[in-house]
Design a protein that fits this description.
Helix content is 64%, strand content 0%. It is an all-alpha fold. The protein has a single domain, classed as Up-down Bundle (Ferritin), CATH 1.20.1260. α1 runs antiparallel to α2, α2 packs across α4 and α3 packs antiparallel against α4.
Length: 264
């Protein structure tokens, strides 16, 4: 008897609800390698589980409550690597959430976000492995929840999600990566700097996916992208974008010259 193919949106929801870090990461990496699965864009899925599934550690605190540590100490570097790993763990969850939550999108939308989820899981694995070489692991330090808070605030509208998570929260990572990579290189952590090079390369693609679907949705709804973005930013109290900006990375990620001009 031929086995029924896995349905992608249901699988994404199951992995989103998984709370064990290693199990979630391995599962998402495996999901990204499946050659054939079915996609049902019309199904309105619901969940009775806690979303997202997350481990007991790290403890979640406000961004201003995270202690500042010197990059010139092993613990300070580990805290930075941990912060980056925490962002990537949340990014796995946000990609899975984008798959299961929003119905009636084209099949390529779901495939795009599966690619993002698998790459975020890979990034997390790189960072957590490096963290272990420093004598720590994911959960050794506290983390903040700003990224997921925006994911939660935009759960009712895929347009708001595309505007304010990949195009705003994740695009900030494009701006921050070069200086972080330089700081890690300056203190001799070449392995961590190399990981950031990989992450920046892939994150350009992730932001590009957000840009593509934001613009597609604006076209479908007959909305002006620039006016709509600013309106959504204000409606959802998104953080104000502050320089320096990685304009070249933003260009590669699909931001228009008109949008880039508004940053300055």
């Amino acid at each position: 008897m031929q086995q029924k193919p896995l349905e992608l949106r249901k699988a994404a929801l199951e992995w989103l609800c998984e709370s064990d870090v290693c199990t979630k990461v391995a599962g998402v990496l495996a999901l990204g390698k499946i050659a054939y699965f079915s996609i049902d864009p019309t199904q309105q899925l619901t969940s009775s589980s806690t979303i997202p599934g997350r481990p007991l550690k790290p403890a979640l605190v406000g961004p201003l409550d995270l202690p500042k540590r010197s990059m010139r100490t092993t613990e300070g570097r580990a805290a930075l690597i941990h912060a980056l790993a925490h962002i990537e763990f949340n990014a796995i969850n946000l990609a899975l959430d984008a798959i299961w939550r929003f119905a009636d999108m084209p099949e390529n939308y779901y495939r795009d976000w599966l690619k993002v989820a698998a790459e975020e899981a890979y990034h997390f694995s790189l960072l957590n492995t490096h963290l272990q070489t420093l004598g720590f692991e994911y959960g050794s330090f506290a983390g903040h929840n700003s990224l997921w808070e925006m994911v939660d605030r935009t759960k009712e509208d895929v347009l708001a999600r595309m505007a304010l998570v990949p195009r705003t929260m994740e695009a900030r990572g494009l701006d921050a990566s070069p200086s972080l990579r330089n700081k890690l290189s300056q203190v001799g952590d070449v392995a961590a700097a190399d990981i950031l090079t990989i992450i920046l390369r892939d994150e350009i693609g992730h932001v590009a996916i957000g840009n593509h679907w934001f613009n597609w949705l604006c076209q479908q709804r007959k909305l002006d992208p620039i006016i709509t973005f600013e309106s959504l930013r204000q409606q959802y109290s998104a953080p104000k974008l502050r320089p320096p900006f990685n304009l070249e990375a933003r260009r590669q990620a699909g931001f228009s010259e008109a949008e880039l001009a508004l940053l300055n």
